[in-house]
């Protein structure tokens, strides 16, 4: 099984990256083949719809990783009640063929209080539009869930991410085993 973990934060010192890295390491420990896209390091051009953009090396790498993925674990910060523009830009380079009938787990890093929920609602809507199977469960991390190095460290938060990863693995197994039936319909 191959899962693409996506860090949707363009920020160098990002708590969102902390969630994504924690999820990626956890999935690897569970025997999953993990690819990692980092919007802060794998810089993509601004999506304009021009087909020439698809020849960009970073775009081709993202597209290949998404093609090969059987499931996704997508993390975003919340900017102005939505997902990050960097993550939306990355998703705009992909299409329904990358996501159709593939399970997706979603998580957000919030600045505090009740942040993160709107970003996840926004992300959930976009992923539905790409025909993915977004898990009903989700995770929002507050700043207190991280250590000084911006690593996810608070015990209950790590347990929640682990539970979300298990749900993603379980659904991905079921969907992958039935992929032929899903593509015939």
What does this structure look like?
With 185 residues, the chain is α/β, with parallel strands linked by helices. The chain has a single domain (2-184), classed as 3-Layer(aba) Sandwich (Rossmann fold), CATH 3.40.50. 44% of the residues lie in helices and 17% in strands. Strands 1, 2, 3, 4, 5 and 6 form a six-stranded parallel β-sheet that branches. Helix 1 (15-29) packs across helix 6 (155-177). The chain is globular, with a radius of gyration of 15 Å. 39% of the residues are buried. Belongs to the azoreductase type 2 family. This is NAD(P)H-dependent oxidoreductase. Residues 1-141 form the NADPH-dependent FMN reductase-like domain. InterPro entries: Flavoprotein-like_sf (IPR029039), FMN_Rdtase-like_dom (IPR005025), NAD(P)H-dep_reductase (IPR050712).
């Amino acid at each position: 099984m191959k899962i693409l973990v996506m860090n949707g934060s363009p920020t160098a010192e990002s708590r969102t990256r902390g969630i994504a890295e924690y999820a990626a390491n956890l999935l690897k420990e569970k025997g999953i083949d993990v690819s990692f896209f980092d919007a802060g390091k794998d810089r993509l051009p601004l999506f304009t719809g021009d087909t020439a953009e698809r020849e960009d090396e970073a775009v081709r790498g993202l597209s290949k990783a998404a093609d090969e993925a059987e499931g996704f674990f997508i993390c975003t910060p919340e900017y102005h009640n939505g997902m990050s523009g960097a993550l939306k830009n990355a998703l705009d380079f992909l299409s329904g063929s990358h996501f159709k009938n593939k399970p997706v787990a979603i998580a957000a890093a919030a600045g505090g209080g009740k942040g993160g929920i709107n970003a996840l609602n926004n992300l959930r809507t976009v992923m539905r539009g790409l025909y993915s199977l977004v898990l009903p469960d989700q995770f929002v991390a507050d700043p207190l869930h991280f250590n000084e190095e911006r690593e996810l460290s608070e015990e209950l938060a790590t347990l929640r991410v682990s539970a979300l990863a298990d749900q993603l693995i379980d659904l991905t197994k079921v969907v992958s085993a039935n992929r032929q039936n899903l593509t015939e319909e």
